[in-house]
TrEMBL record:
Protein EC: 4.2.2.2
Keywords, sorted A to Z: Calcium, Glycoprotein, Lyase, Metal-binding, Signal
Classification via InterPro entries: AmbAllergen, Pec_lyase, Pec_lyase_N, Pectin_lyas_fold, Pectin_lyase_fold/virulence, PEL
SUPFAM superfamilies named in the record: Pectin lyase-like
Domain Pectate lyase: 162-358
Signal peptide: 1-28
Record's protein name: Pectate lyase
Length: 435
């Protein structure tokens, strides 16, 4: 009796150990295979990202400034009087057309700046999100946002009605997708939107907030693959190893990490017409001093309103090339634009209104670097309007000459920034009417 009880206990123990070992092996195997999977995808994406990099970023800036000037002459402003007012050339391209909802894909032709080639899902069908739930990470339900974004084929994703989508885990967006919130008030909350190792993603006209950290788990990232994801930080939108990404007319606030973070050698990106509020670390472009691959980053930040409750990093930059143009900075508590690791920051035609705090008047902040090292970084301010004691501490040393006003088409001056950003954030568009 006693002997057989002991035996069966041993047997149970043996089984328990065997099961535990099997689970451990399965888990380790899955972790390993998923790491390999993402490493491979990152490597493949790196070649496409290199192809998206432009060798003459000054020409790209000039093109941008030329387009803004052309679209904002007194005569062209006069042409656009009426119930709809589009005050910058991105909006001019689509907003005041009564048929915008029948011709949604026109938006893909409206991008400007380094992300101007972003096609989103323009080559695909329209997919309508009818179901706000997000219960299934491995086999997402048809009709949900997650089902749409993981498809391998291009899709232009729209929403059937107003909805709050509470993500249970990070939302991993596959290539060639547009998330187009026009015509509905769409809130994406609860976890981050991840754009990783892909190209041609447009995120437009939605509210992104209260993204929280998640410890990870099994999540589908494409039609053919799901796997074990490690923790996600709770950024609003996290762009990793990707190119041709355009974020436009998004309202973002209060996420647990950054609002928009761009890392791992991503490039050809534009963040425009967006409204940022209630957040400390707003935008991080390049997350680590030990990722020199971020030298490839070329990002345009334009027509955004950096508003109430913001503290710092609008953006904070490492390594790359950043055109920060025609934005309206009405609130910051520490500084507006900062960085380290020799980023090139060309600030043009922005309006910077400093806070009353006498210690926070400086727009710029050089992080963890002695003057001797940072004086060569090209940080230029051209045509910015500096108010309430705001000052932009320029640097550039010998490299500076390359970026002299002389070679450049000046941006629309910062005194127009209020007008250019007047409609920043998610719009309230009605089908059948100019927006
Ligand atoms: C590991 O992946 C296999 C299939 O690839 C799956 O059956 C198994 O449940 C996974 N293990 C864990 C711990 O998720
Ligand atoms: C994604 O869009 C780009 C630009 O339109 C296109 O060249 C590419 O073939 C598309 N990719 C897929 C998978 O459809
Ligand atoms: C942001 O959200 C968190 C958690 O939901 C909340 O506790 C906090 O008060 C919010 N902060 C702001 C500035 O709204
Ligand atoms: C991506 O960037 C993060 C943050 O800098 C870093 O920890 C990670 O190692 C990078 N991954 C790759 C594949 O470079
Ligand atoms: C500008 O930055 C340099 C280097 O950090 C610093 O030495 C100098 O005092 C700054 N100028 C002002 C006006 O703050």
């Amino acid at each position: 009796m006693a002997g057989s009880a002991a035996k069966s206990h041993l047997l149970i123990l043996f089984y328990a150990l065997a099961v535990a070992a099997a689970v451990a092996v399965a888990q380790t195997a899955n972790v390993t295979s998923d790491e390999e999977y993402w490493a491979k995808r990152t490597e493949e994406a790196a070649a496409r990202n290199r192809a998206a990099y432009v060798s003459d970023p000054i020409a790209a800036m000039n093109e941008f400034n030329k387009d803004v000037r052309r679209a904002t002459t007194r005569r062209s402003l006069a042409r656009y009087r009426g119930p709809c007012m589009a005050t910058n050339p991105i909006d001019r391209c689509w907003r005041c057309r009564a048929d915008w909802a029948r011709d949604r894909k026109r938006l893909a032709k409206c991008a400007m700046g380094f992300g101007h080639k972003t096609a989103g899902g323009a080559d695909g069908k329209i997919y309508v999100v009818t179901d706000a739930s997000d219960d299934e990470m491995i086999i997402p339900k048809k009709g949900t946002l997650r089902y749409g974004v993981i498809q391998d084929r291009p899709l232009w994703i729209v929403f059937a009605r107003d909805m709050v989508i509470r993500l249970r885990q990070e939302l991993i967006v596959n290539r060639n997708k547009t998330i187009d919130g026009r015509g509905a008030q769409v809130h994406i909350v609860g976890a981050q939107v991840t754009v990783q190792g892909v190209e041609h993603v447009i995120i437009h006209g939605v509210h992104v907030h209260h993204a929280a950290r998640h410890s990870g788990g099994m999540i589908r990232d494409s039609k053919r693959h799901y796997g074990l994801r490690t923790a996600s930080d709770g950024d609003g939108i996290s762009v990793m190893a990707s190119s041709n990404v355009w974020v436009d007319h998004v309202s973002m606030y209060n996420c647990s990490d950054g609002l928009v973070d761009v890392v791992n050698g991503s490039t050809a990106i534009t963040v425009s017409n967006s409204h940022f509020t209630k957040h400390d670390h707003v935008m991080l472009f390049g997350a680590s001093n030990s990722n020199p691959q971020d030298k490839i980053m070329q990002i345009t930040v334009a027509f955004n309103h950096f508003g109430k409750g913001l503290v710092q990093r609008m953006p904070r930059c490492r390594f790359g090339f950043f055109h920060v143009v025609n934005n309206d900075y009405t609130h910051w508590m520490m500084y507006a634009i900062g960085g380290n690791m020799n980023p090139t920051i060309i600030s043009q035609g922005n309006r910077f209104t400093a806070p009353d705090d006498v210690h926070a008047k400086e727009v710029t902040k050089r992080e963890y670097t002695s003057y001797g090292d940072s004086k060569e970084w090209v940080w230029k301010s051209q045509g910015d309007l500096l108010l309430n004691g705001a000052f932009f501490n320029e640097s550039g040393g010998q490299n500076e000459r390359k970026y002299d006003r002389f070679d450049m088409i000046p941006a629309k001056h910062g005194k127009f920034a209020g007008q250019l950003t007047k409609f920043a954030g998610a719009l309230n568009c009605r089908v059948g009417k100019p927006c």
